[in-house]
Design goal:
This protein is mainly beta and 295 residues long. Helices cover 4% and strands 31% of the residues. The strands form two sheets. A five-stranded mixed β-barrel has the order 2-3-4-6-5. A hairpin with a 2-residue loop joins strand 5 and strand 6. The radius of gyration is 25 Å and the shape is elongated. The chain starts with 52 loop residues before the first strand and ends in a 31-residue tail after the last strand.
Amino acid sequence: PPNGFDLDVDGFLDEADNCPDIHNPEQEDTDQDGRGDVCDVCPEQYDDGQVGCVATIQQLKTRALNPEQMFAIAGIVTAVLPANAPPTQADSFFMQTPAGDMNSDHSGVFVYMGNRLPGVAVPAAGQSVVVSGYYADYYGQAQMTRIRDLSIGGNLSLVEPRSATVLELLRAPEPYESALVCVDDLLVSDLAPEPGIADGQDDEATYEFLVVHEGAPETLRINDLLFRAEPFPSLDEPFSRICGVYRYANGHFKLEPRNISDLDRGPPRVTAIGPLDTYLRVGQTGAPTNGDGAQ
């Protein structure tokens, strides 16, 4: 509604200003879409509530987009939330920049589908999509929301995860957020870490665990939004590699494995032989014996 103010002091009242938050006394609007050039991410491309301004995931993740402007962003779907996800997040998904840019910073984004328009399609992992919607910062996570259209391409594409160390993820987490990441040589250090904000309410198990790299003090949180580890890891259990979507939620950055393949426990290993007076010679297979044939 009209407020009678000119907050940016450019000679135009806010209700008549085509860019009310930025001083622009000339009111240039090259594409004639009602949004002034100085606050239009696409000053030469007409866009409105039906046609989105073409933008990139990197622009969204670096918060370079106008939250009041609709954008069309291309990507490859890396994971779709499962049916047992929180109801408000049903059909939401992660996507990453098309081939060629996957190892760059700020290459992944979470697409929230809980407030999408009726009829908007739900993609599958590996599909190329163009998503039209709005940028939002949700409790520290830059994401797409209010999805108005989603077009799906033809062939399936695989996104290769980006390699990182625990220290790299903790020191500079933002460039990796919502992107596929793999971390090598890990050891489980905690099976019940302190829950995050609004997580683990009513003493419910979070099914999160912490891992460290080669005894270093820095810990990486592993969560179960997309897939729950079965069997659940044991304390001090080693993992050759853990991959997944690196996500910010509930006040923590955490890695979200997508399936059993993302949790590489390494080659089989002997953890114990029993009873105590039995043995098994190197190279042999079968049940351990005590030398007299008793098992």
